[in-house]
TrEMBL record:
Domain Helicase C-terminal: 856-937
Pfam annotation, one family: Helicase_C
Domain Helicase ATP-binding, first and last residues per copy: 12-327
Protein's name according to its UniProt entry: Helicase-related protein
Keyword Nucleotide-binding found: yes
InterPro entries: Helicase_ATP-bd, Helicase_C-like, P-loop_NTPase
Signal peptide bounds: none
Keyword annotations: ATP-binding, Helicase, Hydrolase, Nucleotide-binding
GO molecular function annotations of the record: helicase activity
Amino acid sequence: MSTEQRPEVDRVLASLKDFQRATVELVHERLWGDDDPVKKFLVADEVGLGKTMVAKGVIARTVDHLWETDKRVDVVYLCSNSQIARQNLSRLNVVGGTELRHADRLTLLPKVIRDLRGRRINFVSFTPGTSFQVGSSAGKSEERVLLYWMLTAYWGRAATKSAPWRRFFEGWMSRNNFERALRAFDQDQLDEELCRSFGELVETSSGPDGGPLRAELQDCVHEFRWMRGQPSGELARRRDRLIGAMRGLVARASVHHLEPDLVILDEFQRFKDLLDTDDAGAQLAHAIFDHPDAKVLMLSATPYKMYTLPDDPESDDHYTDFTRTVRFLAGDDRARLVEDELRAMRESLLAGGDRARAREARDAVERELRRVMSRTERLSSTPDRDGMLAERCLDGVRLTADDVRAWRTFDGVARHIDHHDVLEYWRSTPYPLNLMERGTYQVRTKFQAAVERGDAEIATALASGAGLLDWEAVRRYEQIDPGNAKMRGLAADVLDRGAWRLAWIAPSLPYSELGGAYAEEDLRSFTKRLVFSAWTVVPKAVATVLSYGAERRAMNAVGDGSALARRAYDDRPITPPLQFRMTSGDSTRPAGMSTLALLYPSSALARLGDPLDIARSVGALPLAQEVVLECVRGRIADRLQSLPPGLDGAVVDQRWYWAAPLLLDAVDGDDGAIWHFLGSSGLDDDDTGSGLDAHLRLAESVDGLELGPRPADLVDVLARLALAGPGVCALRALSRVAGGARSLRHPEIRARAFDVAQGLRSLFNKPEIVAVLRAEEDERYWQAVLDHCFDGGLQAVLDEYAHVLVESEGLQDADKLSRAETLAETMVEALSTRAVPNTIEQVRVDGGRVLLDDSPRMRSHFAARYGRMQSDEKSAVRESTVRVAYNSPFRPFVLASTSVGQEGLDFHTYSHAIVHWNLPGNPVDLEQREGRVHRYKGHAVRKNVAADHGAVALTCIASDPWAGVFDSAARARAENGSDITPFWVYTRPDGAVIERYVPALPLSREQQRYRRLQRTVGAYRLVIGQPRQDDLLRYVGHSDEDTSWLRIDLTPAAVEIEPFDDAGSPATETIFDPMHDEPPYTPNPWGNEEEALLAAVLYNGGLLGINVREGRGATPAEHREIARRAGYLDARGVAGVRSEHRSGGRWVTVVGRRELEGSAQALGFSMPADLTW
């Protein structure tokens, strides 16, 4: 990011919650204040409390503080991996827009250094692992291209123009591709000064073999002079070492030319090895940290080991790690002071000494640590300090006789191949010999070797087939046992309750009653499951077994007459039912337009069939399905009167289904610009292209069609399209958060809605979803899709998803088009994930021999694994895409991973259930795992807030109902409460909680370990910073007195926050009398936002004028006239919650008065004194 614009610091700070703002103010004062400022500060807030948002506030305050110095401001953001970078960069943007990008590695910085020099604000981001630990590899091809041109810039074109130089740098890239990359490189972006610094380093540095680097480089390049094909192994290694050395020099030169003012180390604990080692990588890191102008902000919920167990071989590792961190932050002298006071505190407690001295020591420790760090925790936000956490049981966890037989088989194989301890494997995964991938576990490698040498004992051990996956049963879609007690419990919890029947998670705030599977209580309350295991085979096992179970149930639910019922598991994929088909024999004429009807974002239908608008008019949430359908049928029947009735004929014209929405848009003034944007859709799909183009051309010429008689169910089908059509729902969802009702007609936003609808088409074309819908409906597939969307509350689903994405994608300050584009891209990515084929080892015994076959594949889609995947390269799904899909309401519904490397990542938007497949070693890791699903506006929080404050959606003037709902919840909290409630913690009786599942077998060691974790998970905070923590915990556990005072409190002091005065807010100067004044423009309850607000003012204000000025209710004739003046065709559809009939007339209600006030304020009107609330 580079910009000349001074950030609006007040606007940025206003987007933070109060406790985050308090931390920002503390950090800024400690880094830049006049009283004892420090160079480094650590924000150690509990996991999930938004440390990235704190960093955003610190960036804004830093830039604002340095702005008057007239120097450029450089912010360097270091994060542990590119996943976290992609998640957080947009959130850190303090100047609006969405231009932040991750530079990946320090060695690519020369491509942007030149631009940095002339800019006022620069944001540079890279990962330490790829930046500081350069090593001896040849790096990425773009790094080698950069090296070639930097050397050329320093030595001159003549020195490097020969072919051997290009062959040297091409690495394993094809020659043609490398030549193209060289030609495509923009040499103008190189900075002359940086190239000179790099060239001088090459001239003066030693090479990998000890000689001058330039000489070693030229000698190696000479070896490429007569070479054809790829170099020998030794020459390739020599080349890679030389390129690695030059990459290190580029990094050194780049660091020298960075001038950081603020360095942010995110998930700081992941690269602490750079802090106190002396290798080349650490030297590079310290060159940034120790820059004379740089301040360092470190972010980590676990900056040091918070707790170590007494039987840990390094049981004092916590104390060592703690003191090392304090030394890095505060220096040796102050670190020794902290150690001395902690020792005094400990000795006073254990020796039964002076409690006053212990408190005094605690206070001294707090004072010293507060200089350089702070920590906020969420647990104090609930009376019982449980932070919404509740333990739940997986009732289906049970051991069977087949499990024991599988154990005997696996154990027998293991003992024979001299690998005795396989209990943990058997306890953790079903079918270990089938699911463990070759080369991943020693037992699997030894088993492979024994089979390949024809070991007859292996065949004997496997003869029973116990514990082996029956591939032929899989092919026939037969039921297979989950194969493991834990898997049995998870399958019962997720599959047996029927989650396989859902295409998405039910909405937290439905506008109409849900139907079908979504109406069942167990599925209406369902949340996604996040599974953590210590073993890499478990994520694969969970993904394959659950996905097969879901797919098998769907396929078996299809009627016997369906082609799906006759399919085998490994048959070719089905033909997608929602296609842009062309007429057989005429490739220019569409065969049917039903798919386009589903996807078309009709602005007319979006206004006529908004279920939230209907709920507001009736005054209830959720509405009965028939009530909302009947209301929309009436609206559409009225609007259809503006269209020609159709020519006479004996056969109804099916084209009405797709033509009517287009014709209604034309009547409403659609200028046709939509076709340009729909035609330029960038989606890449198997049958999108010429078929879509032909459908769009036909739709664009709809005015020239001569339509025949209308179908009898046209009004009903159009009503369902208006309420639940994917294109219409996507348009409303984007408009709610990108401009309000006025955006419904915007051609670019409609085009982005079409993209989202295309993503939904991809969802409904997936075989496992097709089977679900075919099992439920016996009608045309596109209508089955429409029914499923209506039953599942698709509009409420997308509205909730859009609200969550605005903040998770950092779009609060983005313009409406940028916001809509980013939201659509994210939604499409989530919807377009494909099933991942996982390698399965078929193990068979035939004639005394064991036969292995690793060609079978089992798909994962209902459940997915996150982390390292070994699957077909063409079908591999990027981890970021898996995370995006899991953080959406759509599948996968279960995500399984190891806990390694997941710190800092969000998995909470549609999950509040964590499954500890294997328990972690200490309570801190337990909390880290659970922190993945307990974060800002998480799924459990939204459910509870909606249950208590959902009715606010009926009366709030915000186009995004969720904004009003959370605003209401925030206003209702305790007077002295913080913003942790309701945004992180919100409880209610029998409400949603963070569900903790521990599927431990009875009487197992896991149960004993879990009981131990339960005892320490809350108390470990009392002994942070102490050696031999378990001794103090025993003291705490046996003490009768209150020991909570032992906790070292680093919570920042609350700050007084002034309300943000947005200069762009409309002024309220114009007095408007809704009874007598001429409206400034034509009101339209279904028009853009301003037209709809004006309609509300005219209706509520006109009625209120009669009520207060004449002291009576309005007559039916007066009520009709007021409604007509407000733009309603029929007064019956407008009353609802706004007015009521009593005492012989129509009176405005409290809700109507509030809507009048809010709508008038939004328009910049002031009401006459007698009409004010």
